[in-house]
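Input record (one chain):
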Amino acid sequence: MIGTILRWLVFVAAVVAVIRVTRDELALSLLLGSVFLLGVIFLLFGFPGRRRAADAEPSSWIGDPGTRTGSRILGILLVATGIVAASQYKERSTVRVATIPFQVASGFRDCDKLYCPTMVTIPAGAFDMGSDDAETQFAVSLGEKMADVQDEKPRHRVTVEHFALSVTEVTRDQFEAFVTESRYKPEGFCFGLDEQRRTWEHPGFPQTANHPVVCVTWHDAKAYAAYLSRKTGHKYRLPSEAEWEYAARAGSATSRYWGQDNADACQYANVSDSTAATAMKWWTPAENFLCTDGFIFTAPAGKFKPNAFGLHDMMGNVWEWTEDCYNTSYNGAPANGSVWLAGNCNLRVFRGGSWVNDPWEVRSALRDGGTATFRLSDAGFRVARTD
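The corresponding structure, as predicted from the sequence alone:
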């Protein structure tokens, strides 16, 4: 019986070796299923062999597993092998998705490195950029000051050519992969909620790898895009402000791509909500969305429903840098969706609001600006691609 068990151990080792090297998904699935099923049969029923005379030829069944007890030992080994191999197969499949170029319904990737984000093509079109009087009154009704909405005017027609935009904001693991491979060194710090000096690695609140990176400057975002361009041969960049709003609206004419109702926000965005109001005593209920998104700080990228273009988190989660210089109105703004490089170029525009922002700040038309070296614990970015 010991010899039989040894032969089966060799067989099990061979199965594991084949599982680890095979790349045929159907063959791999059949092999795993066979090993597991064989183990279950041995475990439940055993194959002790036929009774035989002393001088008869030994009976056999795939190597004669011997006694019922021995066969059940083999069954346990085979079942365990199937479970372990299946877990290895699952782990390998997960890694493959993250490291091999792939095309999915929601987008595409240009390289097999972690720093290459999933992109989606945004169709060409035209839209009305900025706020009209109804939008202004809606913002004021939510608590915005009339003076603060003037940079959203005048509303004007903009035509945008097709381009690609990352499906989510750039995540911590994507940014870390870029920093590691390029040896880029972000300098400076941002102030966290605790008013301590923080960095993108330690923003002052818990994050995991798939949360959006924060505490990054406009220059950091530009460096990431430039590195992608060098590595892929495609022109990566920050979106223009017009492209950003066009992509955020996704054909909608309301204040947000899900509509005007504040209570619907938590299906589509991580915003200042009841979860945050409970955790942060200095936020009053009147300043929050009256819904629950389940997150106090940042949420994993892509956690909430996308807009009609398949883009996640265009509202809330983190503010997003754009390429444009900041202007106090849209007088003289380009009508073709291009980057506006006139005005105060010491300030660059960021859009979309964040997990800390209340209803009047989370709108498609809302805009703000910061210096290119400015870091915020609720500001990140996503990238665009021209070709």
